[in-house]
Amino acid sequence: MVAATRPRAVGDEGVWFFITADISLFAVLFAAFMHARYGAPGLFEDSRQALNTSLGTLNTLILLTSSWQVALAVHAAREGLRDQVLRYLGLGMLVGVGFAVTKAIEYADKIRAGLTMVHNDFFMFYWALTGLHFVHFLVGMVVLGVCLHKARRDPLDARFLIWIESGGCYWHMVDLLWIMIFPMIYLLGAA
Amino acid sequence: MTPLSRHPMTLAWLALVAATLTVFALAEGAGGGRFASIGIVLVSAFKVRLVFLWFMELRSGAMPWRRVTETWVAAVALILIAGVLLTGAP
Fold first, then answer.
1. Which domains occur in chain A, in start order?
2. Which residues of chain A lie closer than 8 angstroms to B44, CB-CB?
3. Mean per-residue pLDDT for B13-23?
4. Cβ–Cβ of A67/B65 closer than 8 Å?
5. Of residues B12, B28, B80, nearest to A184 (C-beta)
6. How buried is A47 (Cβ within 10 angstroms: 0-12 exposed, 13-18 middle, 19+ buried)?
């Protein structure tokens, strides 16, 4: 009798352990933010009003579009379509650069207005959470760059598939973390 | 390869864009009211679930990661909704 094979997650199993640990850490930070907000709703609401929700929405759309391109690259890799893998990965990175540009504009604006990490508790969380997320974004761009380099040079075999699936999952994690960080900090009314 | 316009990843992306615009409309329209805030959390949780299931391909039911991610989405949504109910505007 042949044992039924259970569906397995795409990419390397170790990446899923990392993703689980990372999103768990962010869940704790989300709880810490909501707890601090509970203690000072007026301050958190006034500070939230200083944030640019249009820029935050644009950043969400940028990351979603970049994630879509990377997901298409993974599917193209499974079919051995090197030109499409290169095109979709390249587009995914190019769109992703837009996130860094809008974040730089936003951070410069906040620094000019004196809304730095030491301004108050809200901005301590704002810089810590968005900053930690931005570090994840930078790591993701490097990972996608490595995948792009390998897609040019290496055969599109099972080894490459593990690379692009794992890198893709990391990139989607960057995307989904922003999907929760953005409404929590920018949109939820506190008072 | 499936045409781009009918590719499952394109359909997932379109649903995510529509949900993002819904979140923006809720935020702009209700200015941070309690019900709008809860709506924003629920739509955002739905978006995260779409990313897990479609972009990260957990819809096949790969365990234990499917269970772990579903639990994470529910826990984060509960944390945010509890925060809104405790401190949000009426």
1. 20-29+42-187 (1.20.120.80)
2. 179-180, 182-183
3. 97
4. no
5. B80
6. buried
Q: Does B27 touch chain A (CB under 8 A)?
A: yes
ipTM of the complex: 0.93
pLDDT digits (tens, 9 = 90+) for A23-35: 999 999 999 999 9
Nearest-angstrom CA–CA distance, A67 and A174: 9
Contacts of B36 in chain A (CB under 8 A): 189
- For the stretch A133-175, pLDDT in tens is 999 999 999 999 999 999 999 999 999 999 999 999 999 999 9
- CA-angle at B79, arms to B73 and B85, nearest 5°: 130
What percentage of chain A carries pLDDT values higher than 90?
Answer: 91
Per-residue pLDDT, averaged over A106-115, amounts to 95
- Taking only residues 33 to 72 of chain B, the set having a beta carbon closer than 8 angstroms to any beta carbon of chain A reads 33-34, 36-37, 40-41, 44-45, 47-48, 51-52, 54-58, 60-63, 65, 68-69, 72
Measure the CA–CA gap between A148 and A151, rounded to whole angstroms. Answer: 5
Q: A65 vs B52: CB contact, 8 Å cut-off? A: no
Q: Which band of pLDDT confidence, cut at 50, 70 and 90, is reported for residue A1?
A: very low
Q: How far is CA A86 from the centre of its chain?
A: 21
- The verdict on a CB contact (< 8 Å) between A67 and B75 is no
Q: Is B1 exposed, middle or buried (0-12, 13-18, 19+ CB in 10 A)?
A: exposed
